[in-house]
Amino acid sequence: MTITHRRIIYIVFFAIFFIIGPLIVLYATGYRYNARIGTIQRTGAIMIDVIPGDVSVSLDGAEIDNVDIVDKSIRLTRLIPKEYEITLKKDGYYDWSARTYVGPSDSVFFRNVRLFRDENLPIFIGNADSVVPNRKFTATTTSELIKNQSLKIKQDTDRGVLKIEVDKSGNDIELGVVPHAEYEFYDSPDNWIVFRDRSARTLYVYEMPEEGSTGRKYAIPDVYGFDWSKDERFLMYHNNFELWTLDVLTGRQNLITRRSSGIDYAIWYPSGNYVIYYSGDVVRIREINFYGETTVSYNLAKLPNVSDMRVDPEGKDLYLRADVGNKDGWFIRKMQ
């Protein structure tokens, strides 16, 4: 081999090193060539916390063979910036899907995603309440003691209203003034007093005041039912046709769904980002984020005359109290 040939080989290898080397470095540090716009961009990622964990994953309709799953968390990395459609599948379960935009250096998180069993035949298990989980919050007609706080209701005859006061450290502090009516008080999270006008169905949500403050106060009209989220920050409530959430820390209200067939009952799913509601003889579940945006919805069961719904703390079983033919009691529907 002549010196000229050696020099040519040396120059070729040197050129390859200087061309490929930077590309390898760019790839290793999270850059990829985006053919759609003809430029090199920093990549992003999608993280999905999901139960069950053994699911198949598709991105824009193409199934991914080797998915990086760590502790039931799916990691999709080195994604060029654009909008993606993600689909999770498992035999015997409803599919889950979402669309999201991934920007340069973005990490998009989907937390507490659940795949639910695709079955619509609840099984009768009996009529005793002992076979189902207890309610978290219950109603009471007395106002003597709510969360270890002594409440006082005083009538202002001149104004035709009632004053709600709380005995705090030996001092009577006025929580609010409400119309003269018959009220139903509820067990509630710490630092909150919740009661409802039995006739007008106005729900009052009052925060226990701290030193030098008045506390947050909400009056929500025409409330047929409500439920607190697991973290006790969000109150879900419904009237005859609409289902809403209230962020009690910010006061932000969001419409989850509106049903012409009416809404008879609604509860939170334990993960905190799904709500289960009963409308038109059908039990449905809908995914929301913490600010009310809806994404995924499924029909869980078709069952007449449902009067109560409960979920076990782990979210594995849904219990429905219904009157079906000659069976009046509790039915169970497997969720996971």
Structure description:
The chain is mainly beta and 336 residues long. The N and C termini lie far apart (71 Å). β22 (242-247) and β23 form a beta hairpin. The protein contains 1 helix and 30 strands. Mean pLDDT is 81; it is low at 21-29 and 140-148. It has a 5-stranded antiparallel beta sheet with strand order 12-16-17-18-19, with no helix packed on it. A 4-stranded mixed beta sheet has the order 6-7-3-10, with no helix packed on it. The chain has one helix at 3-28, and strands at 31-34, 39-42, 44-51, 56-59, 62-63, 68-70, 73-79, 82-89, 96-102, 107-114, 123-126, 139-140, 150-156, 161-168, 171-179, 183-186, 192-197, 203-207, 217-220, 225-228, 234-238, 242-247, 253-258, 265-268, 274-279, 282-288, 294-302, 306-311, 317-324, 327-334. The protein is 8% helix and 51% strand. It has 3 domains: 3-34; 43-114, Sandwich (Immunoglobulin-like); 123-334, Neuraminidase.
| CATH architecture verdict of the largest domain | 6 Propeller
The major beta sheet can be summarized as: 5 strands, antiparallel
Q: Detail the poorly predicted runs.
A: 21-29, 140-148
Structural class: mainly beta
The CATH class of the largest domain turns out to be: Mainly Beta
Total domain count: 3
Helix content: under 10%
| Total beta-strand segments | 30
Distance between the termini: 71 Å
CATH topology of the largest domain: Neuraminidase
Overall radius of gyration: 28 Å
The averaged pLDDT comes out at 81
Strand content: over 45%
Shape: extended
Helix tally? 1
Strand arrangement in the largest pleated sheet? 12-16-17-18-19
